[in-house]
Input
Amino acid sequence: MSGRSETWQIEPQKVDLDLDGDTLHEECGVFGIHGHPDAAAITALGLHALQHRGQEAAGIVSFDGHVFHLERKLGLVGDGFSDRAVIERLEGTSAIGHVRYSTTGETILRNVQPLFAELDSGGFAVAHNGNLTNGLTLRRNLIRDGAICQSTTDTEVIVHLVARSRRHPFIDRFVEAIQQIEGAYSLVALTNKKLIGARDPFGIRPLVIGELDGRYILTSETCALDIIGARFVRDVENGEIVVISDEGIESFRFAPEQPARPCIFEYIYFARPDSVVNGRNVYLARKNMGRELAMESPVEADVVIPVPDSGVPAALGFAQTSGLPYELGIIRNHYVGRTFIQPTQSVRELGVRMKHSANRAAIEGKRIVLVDDSLVRGTTSVKIVRMMREAGAKEVHFRIASPPITHPDFYGIDTPEKEKLLAATHDLEQMRAYIGADTLAFLSIEGIYRAMGEKGRNPQQPQFTDHCFTGDYPTPLTDLAVATPRRISLLAEAD
Output
């Protein structure tokens, strides 16, 4: 396998040089198909549709009935898997794939998934979306017992746990392994005979089943089914394992049945707008968030302006409910990479202009309502408000279509430490003054639940995983309880 040389050094994230440093990121998407003659090509197409879930690396493992084939590439799916020769090397009728965004450290090939290992039962490949909140604890215990780890990803823990299990048949080994892990995860795995999918007991991360030409598919979002013309079958349930083989599909429960708590941020930001997640259309959910926001926090203004791209559906909902015109007052440049180097402070200040440009004709002399999906550090919001004023906006009113983010995430979302979250250290008036807006308002926690079709949040049994707003973490945070600064840094390297 070729690629750039790898290093074991872990470096802190350089937020100041990152054009996306004030946005949230999720670390990956997964795809798998069994029994199709074009398995690798279909997997590559599916990963293209999931590119929004991870842009730093991609990988595919295939099986031809005798040999597993692995290709892992840094960069976008199109950069690594458009070459016909690469797809032809991925022989076989079954394949799994992964797109990745790393939160800490250098993106290096040894961390790119799927991971593969030869076990006594045969080959085993696995790809993971989420984060294990006891991954470091398990890793430490495995290393003490003699395990040799080749990556810094928590997915490798799953490989070791499966390898060390003495249960038979293989699915029992897999069950024993995942019953030891905590946190958020959707997994796709490939063996000599089976494609396996699993979703954590709370269903925090999405995973769906599709069908193409009579062959089953597992993937993170329905948009990956649409791109290949596949039919949506159903969601994988929380606490469920599905096993796909030549005989068909089987289902097993590895955790007691309980109400699911999918991550609310899949609807706010991460999932593609055309996806359906847990039976809810993402685009309509985001429009509803804008509608609720307009009812909760109306403002006298002339025009509604979305912060592209994720703020667009909410801004449409806000405009339709408020009766205000909707205009594209900010034009986004989609061709700016995350790793653009800005060598001086003066050039760094221009970074936001590389990504967003003001449309003066829609702004000048007007009272504008800026609508965005969320506010993290607030640094980008400061620059956008300033840009609007420089373009001639008479007033700038900022509306956020989600509640204030006051707590960090440990389930696979790249959020900064609590002290770097603007809403965790500032009250509403301080935040307004910091970003320079005339007014600032957030959607309430009850409003976001109403937008999702619920009457409100059930405090005894919340319908979603909403810890970033409430501090209500649904699972134990085992690693955090015994964390050191280095362990916290490693904990953030989710998959």
About this structure: The first helix runs from residue 39 to 49. The chain has two domains: 15-261, 281-472.
